[in-house]
Structure formats: structure tokens, C-alpha cells
Amino acid sequence: MIENNSCTEKDNFDTTVFEKELQLTAALNKVKQLEEKLKRSERECLSYKNRYQSSVSHCEEIKNELASVKALYDEIQASTSWKITKPLRAVGDLIGKILRSNRFTYLLGKGIKSLMRDGFKETLRKVKEHRNEGKGIKSAKAPLYTKKELKAQRNETFPKDIKFSILVPLYNTPEKFLREMIESVQNQTYSNWELCLADGSDNAHADVGKIVNSYQKNDKRIRYIKLEKNLGISGNTNACIDMAEGDYISLFDHDDLLHPAALYENMKAICEKGADFIYTDENTFHETPSDAFCPHFKPDFAPDTLRANNYICHFTTFKHSLLDVVGKFRPECDGSQDFDMMLRLTERAEKIVHIPKILYYWRAHANSVAESVGAKPYVIEAAKKAISDHLSRIGLKGEVLDSPVPSMYRLKYEIEGEPLVSIIIPNYEHKAELEVCINSIYEKTTYKNFEIIIVENNSTSTEIFDYYKELKKLYSNLKVVIWEEHFNYSAINNFGAKFASGEHLLLLNNDTEVISPDWIQEMLMYSQRKDVGAVGAKLYYPDNTIQHAGLGLGLLDLAGHLHRGFDKNHPGYMGRLIYAQDLSGVTAACIMVRRNVWDKVNGLDESFEVAFNDVDMCMRIRKEGYLIVWTPWAELYHFESKSRGLDSAPDKRERFLGEVERFQKRWEKELKDGDPYLNPNFDLNKEDFSVR
Question: Which residues in 32-49 are b (16+ Cβ under 10 Å) and which e?
């Protein structure tokens, strides 16, 4: 008994000591972690302090400069010479107004200003860009059909008997606009339609009803009701709905025009594709379609693109029964009532079809949204409400923020928890570039739950290995793993992923530098969504031009970088550099993929050693039913050379051509069908959205 008791006491003692040792080890590790955090915090504090002091100093300089300029302004305004020359300035303003009204003198004046401000090289670039835009506009005005083809459309018989109800709410519509609108419907090559007009005009515009009645006498398809009072744009449109008896509903503004083949093309989409929601491309004009100046060639349906910007807009047609499900227009969204309706309809539609042809002409005048959203500022608030309500309906938590461009919106989705993000960085030598990359991550990144896995690939210098040792001492969340095989970008990243513990993998090139402190959050909020498979960032060359803003399938024969070479502050084609959107692919220079998606597609295909591995992976992710999202709010520099071309070494050229052939063969159908997010009217030989 005594021996047994003694043994038990000894065991207890040993166990207690062992536990104490474990606790001590854990405490020491904790101390090390806290020391590292303290060092990192001290570096961040010093950085913030320096930036703060710099900002304060800069503000003082601006204040002093402003005071100096104001004093000079007051002095000039009070001077006798300023008062005497007032008539001359008035004459000068008048001459300037006349010169600006003439297209030639206006452009000449802009050119001279640009030369003085930006120099010859930048002015030449702007002239070339303007000429390209002009070519695109000219191409967009080219007739879609010959008179013979339009005549054949009128005689065509379809397998279905579909009636379209075209809804037009009227309100104090100018006679010219009203007549042109009605006649553009009467000129349709497909004749089974009804035009439903609900008139909320005031008593001073009684001529609106008289004009419509004059058309009704000769065309019974025109239906008209005079409302007792103006119910607002939603209420007036709902009155049109109450009149509608058609199988499909089409939305039409009272001052716009339809192409003669608009309904015919919609009918084809219904009969050939079973469409229950249809939209077309459009153009904006001043007086007649011949002066149209802003062709909008749209992508196929893209939910993230739509949430950020109502790119669908006109001409929209949908099944009447679909409207019965989602309900009528909501007055609380007046101003953006169509946007609200697009969101509600596309949530429920089963077959959304985009017709990539300009079949709608949107008139721009002083009081129209087409001319300026500023003409109706309430439109923006109504749109933000429509998007917020949409997010609530589909179960996404987030807020809707303004972007630099009115009518385009920035969405901030709520991040669930704080999942670990594993940043995988392949590296060979290049200590200087890697140091810039690593420093930018630790100094700027506001998201803290990440780890870095550097995949060392056959470096030989002591400098780089000394740097690795230094990094591992500094950061407990950084590790270096060794790849000993020959260079294969796909295999190296796949190897690195094996050591990753994160729920999300972030592939990152070693020649990048973080700009946006919240870059991880901006990508993570999309990567966490179950319908998204990969997320890409906005990358710049060192000269602040676009290196990457998403990939376009079929560009430059295989895949190209959208907007490459544009200035970093350029809004892009129809604002596409301003907002997050769905695309066919993003570059692996900075891509986030949820771990379960990565595993599902088996990561990067190692048969693509250098080129097209990222596009191929994005295509495989899309084939599994996921979206690929590109966001402009995660910004980094990518120090890739602008002039980098195909390596001329025979073995590398052979490898590259083999990868080209492999990609073309694997994605032959997709290349033939075209990129759904890149309108077929664009020139695939260019990355700048030039029109064919």
C-alpha cells in the first residue's frame, strides 16, 4: 500500500511537472507572438505617425497657398484694370461660347489646352483614343438590316403566337417625342403588339391625349387611358400593366425610339431559346439616331455586374407571368424603378437572353437621365434602395456605397467570421522584388488572419536564403517551402497549396506591391460566397497604367487583359473599370480561390507550365457553375514588363506553342461561342473595347 501510494504521488508529481513545462512552453510561444505583434504595431505606428505628420505639413502648405491665392484674387478683383476690362471679358466669353458650339473649333481648343497642360505625347494619345471612339460610333450606326431583310421579317411566320404589350407611361410628353415614339412602334416588322399608354400629364398638356387619339383612329393596337392624376413613374407604369393583355411585357420610355426589328429579334429569342427575360444593346442620341454618340455593347447576364450598375437598362422584355410572380413597380424606387424591376425579375427568370444588337435608342435631353444623372439626383438613392432590397431577398448581407461615378455602386459584403487566408508566393532569387512584396503585405494589410507560404524555386544566392531566415524570425505566420524540380508555375503553386492551412488560397506573384490596405477583405467578401469560385484584383504597371482588369476569352486569339494600358484613373468602357463585375477569367498574379473550389478543380493544370494556366483554371471553375469576379477595389502594382513578349529561345517557344495548342483544343467550343462577358461587336484583336 505504501509503495503504491508512493508511486502514485511520484506519477502525480511527474505529470504536474510535465504540465507545467507545457504551460511554460506555451507561455514562451505566446510571449514571442506578442513581441512580434508589438514590433509590427510599432512599425505600423511609426508609419502612421510619419504619414500623419506629412499630411499635417501638407495641409498647412495648402492652407498657406489658399490664403495667398485668395489675397491675390481679392486684390485683382478690386483693381481698376479688372473693372475697366469687364466688357472685354464679356465679349471673350461670348466668343468662347460660339467657338465651343462648333465641333471643329471646340476640338481644336481642347487640343491646344491639352498641349499646354499635358504635352505632345499625351495629347497625341488622346487624339488616337478619340479617333478610335469615333470609329466605334460610326460602326454602331451602320444599318443592321437592308430594306429587303426588313421586308422579309414582316412576312416571316413563327411557330408561336406571341403578343407583346409595350408599356409607356406618359407625362407632359413633347409632341415631337410622342409622335416619333409611337411611329417607331408602328414601324415594327413584327406586328402582333399592343401599345399601352397611361397618361399622367397635367392640364396644361391636354394635347398629349389629342395626339394619341389621332393615332388610335387608324391603329386599334394603340391603347390609351387618361389618369385622374399623375401617379409618379411607377404608378403610371402600373396603370399600363393593368391595361396589358400580351404574353410578354416590353418597357419603353416616352421620349425614346425602337429599331424596326426590335420585336422581331425578341420573338426569335423566345422561339429559338425559350427566353423569359430579354434585353438588347442600345445607343444614346440627341435629335435622331443618326447622331447617336454612345453605343452600349453589353455583356450577357452577369449578376455582380448588374448589382453594381444597371447595365441591362433598355430594351427589356419579359414574360407576363414572370411579372405576376415578382409584382408591379414600387413607387418607393421611383427614379430607379426599372433597375429595381430588373433585379426582381432576374432573381426569378429561368432563361435570360441578351441580344447583342443595338435595337433601342435612348434620347438625351436636358431633363433626361441619359444626359446626366445629375438631372435627377433622387435616382441614385432609389437605386441604392433597390440594390439593398435585392441583397436582402437573396440572403446576402452587405451595404451599398457610392462609387466615383454616379449610377455605379460599390458593394461591401459582410465577411463571415475571420477565415484564414493562405498567401502563396513562388520565388526564385529576386530578393529586392520579394522584399517590396512582403513589406507591403505586412505594413499595409488591415486583415490580420493570413499566412504566407513562400515557395523557393532553385535559388542559389546566400542573399536570398539569409533573407528567408530573417523573415522567419520576424513573422511567425510565414514559412518557406522548397521546390526542387524544374520551373513549372502550376506545379509550384500546387506544391505550395499543400502546405496551406487557409480556407482561402491567394496566389500572388513576387513582383507585386499592395496598394489597398483592405485588399484581402475586398477579395474575401466575394470568395466566401458559395456562387463564386475565384476573385481577381486590379493591377497596375509601375507607370500607373492598367496591367490587369480581368481577362477576355478570345482576345488576341486566346485570352487578353481587358483595358490593358489605360490610365489607372480612366473609368473604362462604359465605366467598367469603376465597379466589380463577373468575367471569364482573372490573372494568377493575384487570385483568391476558396479551398474547396481549388480542390474540386484540382488546382492549376501542370501541363500548362507557364502560360494560360490561370485562364484554364478559371474556365474549369466556371464549368463547375461558379462565377469569376473581378474587383477594382483590391489594387496592387505588378512590376511585370510592359514590353514582355514571347521568349525566342527554341525550347521555350516550343513549350509556349504547345500550351497554345492545348488551350485551343480544350476550349475549342468556348472560343468559338465567344466570351459571354465580352460583346461580339468588339474587335478581338485589341484589348481596349474597340468596335469591330
Answer: eeeeeeeeeeeeeeeeee
Pairing of strands 409-413, 316-319: unpaired
What's the whole-model pTM score?
0.80
For residues 232 and 309, state if they share a domain: yes
Instruction: Please tell me what DSSP assigns to residue 317.
Output: E
Of 306, 333, 201, 329, the C-alpha closest to 254 is: 201
Q: Which of 26-40, 200-214, 424-438 has the weakest average pLDDT?
A: 26-40
Residues 91 and 68 in one domain: no
pLDDT in tens, 31-90: 666 666 676 666 556 555 555 565 566 556 656 766 776 676 677 667 776 667 667 666
Residue 330 lies in a domain: yes
Is it true that the peptide bond before 689 is cis, omega within 30 degrees of 0?
Answer: no
For residues 494 and 603, the answer to whether their CB atoms sit within 8 Å is: yes
Q: Between vectors from CA 306 to CA 537 and to CA 520, what angle results, nearest 5°?
A: 25
Q: Residue 16: what residue type?
A: T
Q: Which of 374, 185, 327 is nearest to 266 (CA)?
A: 185
Residues 492 and 617 in one domain: yes
Could you tell me the three cell numbers for 27?
507561455
Angle CA(119)–CA(123)–CA(126) in degrees, nearest 5?
150
Phi, psi (rounded to 5 degrees) for 516? -80, 120
3-class secondary structure, 339:
helix
Residue range 315-323: mean pLDDT, rounded? 98
Q: Tell me the C-alpha distance between 440 and 634, whole Å.
A: 13
Q: Counting Cβ atoms within 10 Å, is residue 93 exposed (0-12), middle (13-18) or buried (19+)?
A: exposed
Query: Which H or E element spans position 68?
Result: helix 2-78
- Within 13 Å, how many C-alpha atoms sit on residue 126's CB side? 16
Instruction: Supply 499's cell numbers.
Output: 502546405
The answer to whether residues 172 and 96 belong to one domain is no
What's the confidence (pLDDT) of residue 8?
Answer: 38
The number of C-alpha atoms within 13 Å of 662 and in the hemisphere containing its C-beta is 17
Number of Cβ atoms within 10 Å of the Cβ of 77: 9
* Orientation angle between helical segments 86-101 and 103-118, nearest 10 degrees: 110
- Exposure class string for 124-150: b at 16+ Cβ within 10 A, else e: eeeeeeeebbeebbeebbeeebeeeeb
Q: What is the domain count for the chain?
A: 4
Please state, in angstroms and rounded to a whole number, the distance separating the CA atoms of residues 362 and 293: 10
Q: Is the pLDDT of residue 127 over 80?
A: no
Q: How far is the C-alpha of 321 from the C-alpha of 318, rounded, in Å?
A: 9
